[in-house]
Design goal:
152 residues
Amino acid sequence: MPRTAQLATFIAMVLSVLGAVHWSVWVRLVVDPAPPAALRRGLTLALIVLFLGIPLTFYFARLRDLAARRFLTMPGYVWLGAVFILLVLIVSTDLVRLTGAAVERLVADVPPSDPEPSHSSGVARPWRRSGRGSGPWSWPTCAFVSIACRKR
């Protein structure tokens, strides 16, 4: 395979990945919130310009003038880092939501337990109370919050 064909294949693959990243950020941050039409068009145009600015960044990085190179490449590199951070946040949020949905489905399939068994000692167990804020994880949560919020 000639060198130019290899380079064209590589550039096409990189631009495809960058396009997919920008598309996912666009869908999650522009389309899903459903902003007004003018804002949506503006954000869409901004994402397209930022996407097209990344290949220009790599082109400008080959300039001989150091001051011009720094001035022209900095926005592209900053956007490349920012879009990566946005992608990581979006994917991690989706994973947390997916995990929560899976746990909710698993918990919904569990039959309700016996309501208040009789205790031989007669001592009430605080985690057996019903209502918000009760459960076996209430006191560890309160302990964690009190430790985290105390003044140092």
